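Chain X:
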Amino acid sequence: MEPLNICPRFEQAINMLGKRWTGLIIHQLLDGPKRFSVLEASTSISGRVLSDRLKDLEQNGVVKRNIIPESPVRIEYSLTDKGLALEPILREIENWSQNWIEQDYGEQIGQ
């Protein structure tokens, strides 16, 4: 059997975006900057996992961590231009899911 000839950049992109919760985090940030606590509450992702994913996305240049010098210090997360470039893709996945994913899918997979 002949090995698949997959573009290394495509494979890297799929590996980054395919991590659990990553797409949901990016989707939440499409509406604008959000604080960690807001992301945690709106996604029901555990704080540890959310922190790990945000660090990964920041290292990959998809998310920017903004420190706002107030008392107490406020930290918000927003999408970079690289992250915002994913909007049409995520909107198409959203459209596809509305047409093809059954509403009770989350219950079927144990969420």
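Chain Y:
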Amino acid sequence: MVWSIGLLAVLIGLDQALKYWTVTHLALGESAELIPGFLQLTRLHNYGAAWSSLSGKVVVLLVVTGALMVAVAWLLIKKIVRHPLGVTAGLFLLGGGLGNMIDRVLRGYVVDMLDISPLFDYPIFNLADCFVVVGAVLGAVYYLWFYDKYDKKERTHGHKDPDGHN
């Protein structure tokens, strides 16, 4: 449990620290080369979700993200997901979701800065977005290869499950 809180704090802290650096060192639209030919930091304000979808719908995004964060937290707190891979996936989802929620609450938009356009054309994103993607991939791996073996509740033969099914 302590490592979970620690990892979540580190993820949110890294995301917020990079956003803070971006806001304090780059003007809107300004870029700074980080890895030549591959990655630059470009300050962008995203008023929507991925690829600026739902732009300007801050309340909708906060409600939807909040509901998803509550669902993931519930899976972890109720120990429905117990395997370390599943817990780590949930923490990455929470860290990314909360990192972007903090921006929406404090600023009304999300600070994006990771720009891989020197390599190929792709929308600018942030560290929280990376955490959500990592969490989703880890979650899929967990569910496909570990959930049944480690966390799925077994039913005793002939007894109904909590939903009343055999």
